[in-house]
Write a structure and sequence with these properties.
The chain is an alpha/beta fold. It has a single domain, classed as Alpha-Beta Barrel (TIM Barrel). 41% of the residues lie in helices and 14% in strands. It is built from 13 helices and 13 strands. The radius of gyration is 20 Å and the shape is globular.
């Protein structure tokens, strides 16, 4: 009976989301829907009974998906990327939905109310989301108590970036990021950190053209963080639209800092001429940048490059355009040890996480792998 229920539930969940919930949600403003879903998730995560019910409905486990990476145990390789739970309100429900890990943030040192609305949008034909929040954040001081209230055992990441404001000089912007790291280290919250240097929706360009998006600015930032007492893995969220030569320069710089554990490829798409976009849809898109399928190929290209040249130095996390197990598997075979997603969940509903994990097991068996770790970088062997 149980096996019959587990076979029927995913199909039923998908049908309900695709035929009823998604068409309804997509009639409303994207940020309002996000806020509603966040509130719903907070309620579900508030007690053990609702967490267990959610887990029964969504969670899929299999031993072939387990990995031990950077001192952390991952039940599966599918994580929630930074950018969805930016104020850490969902940390107690996300493990029950089926994620193997999840990142809160990006969180900033000081509060920022976000860029002017509308700052979220949908491009369904392009399988993309328009994003222009600009590090909307309640600020690290307000969020730390929530992070201390984590209930689950799934690894929780904290993405940190600079407060979106104008700084008197570049050193002041660096100090802002450093203060945020000092606070999370002292509070001993989270299981790993992400340093977001690549969000394209910020106003704080810095002085004289230097920023975290330049090699010189990136090196100066890491130098300012070097003496902090890091005792947890640190991952750098990299740019999508850098050349391989530019990416190599950033990776060389990062490799010189022992506290950097790995890199995440990659952040949002800025190029509106990307061939994945529906031409009519992109013409009407507002201010901001894009997640989802327009990021897929470029992300895989950078994952592959980083794995071929730095696999002995960095753990790679892949993000961008994952809508099914084949998408996740492509990033893993390109060199990613773990992958993250948001957009695929928005378009296909939370049941997609369990479905991806279930289908990954089938793909592993088909290729003769006993564990997901054996598939990492398989394209290069």
């Amino acid at each position: 009976m149980y096996s019959v229920i587990t076979m029927i539930l995913p199909k039923l969940q998908n049908t309900i989301y695709q035929k009823i919930l998604k068409p309804t949600f997509f009639q409303f403003d994207a940020e309002n829907v996000h806020d509603f879903m966040t509130l719903s998730g907070q309620i579900l995560g508030s007690n053990s009974i609702t967490r267990k019910i959610t887990e029964t409905v969504f969670l899929y486990k299999h031993p072939s998906l387990k990995q031990h990476i950077a001192g952390l145990d991952f039940a599966n390789p599918i994580g929630l990327s930074a950018g969805f739970d930016y104020d850490a309100k969902l940390i107690n429900i996300l493990p029950s939905v089926g994620f193997g890990f999840h990142t809160a943030g990006t969180i900033t040192n000081l509060p920022y109310e976000g860029n002017p609305k509308p700052r979220l949008g949908r491009l369904p034909k392009s399988q993309s989301l328009l994003v222009n929040k600009g590090f909307k954040s309640a600020g690290i001081d307000k969020i730390i108590p929530r992070l201390k209230n984590k209930k689950g055992q799934v690894p929780l990441g904290i993405s940190l970036g600079s407060t979106n404001k104008t700084y008197p000089d570049f050193d002041a912007q660096i100090d802002d990021v450093r203060q945020a790291f000092v606070k999370v280290i002292q509070a001993n919250v989270g299981d790993y950190y992400e340093l977001n240097i690549s969000c394209p929706n910020l106003c704080n360009i810095g002085d004289n053209g230097i920023s975290f998006s330049t090699a010189a600015g990136f090196k100066k930032l890491l130098s300012a963080l070097r003496d902090l007492p890091f005792n947890k893995p640190v991952f750098i969220k990299m740019h999508l639209e850098k050349t391989l030569s530019e990416t190599d320069e950033f990776l060389k710089i990062a490799s010189g800092f022992d506290f950097v554990t790995g890199c995440i490829f990659s952040n949002l798409c800025k190029d509106r001429t990307n061939p994945v976009f529906d031409k009519d849809e992109i013409k009407t898109a507002g201010m901001g940048n894009f997640s989802g399928k327009p990021c897929f190929t470029g992300s895989n290209r950078l994952i592959s490059f980083a794995y071929k040249n730095y696999s002995d130095r960095f753990i790679i996390i892949g993000v961008g355009g994952i809508f099914n197990a084949q998408d996740a598997y492509a990033k893993i075979k390109a060199g990613a040890s773990l992958v993250q997603m948001i957009t695929g969940m928005v378009y296909q509903g939370p049941s997609i996480i369990g479905q991806i994990n279930k289908d990954l097991v089938r793909l592993l068996k088909k290729d003769g792998f006993e564990n997901i770790s054996q598939a990492i970088g398989a394209d290069h062997r």
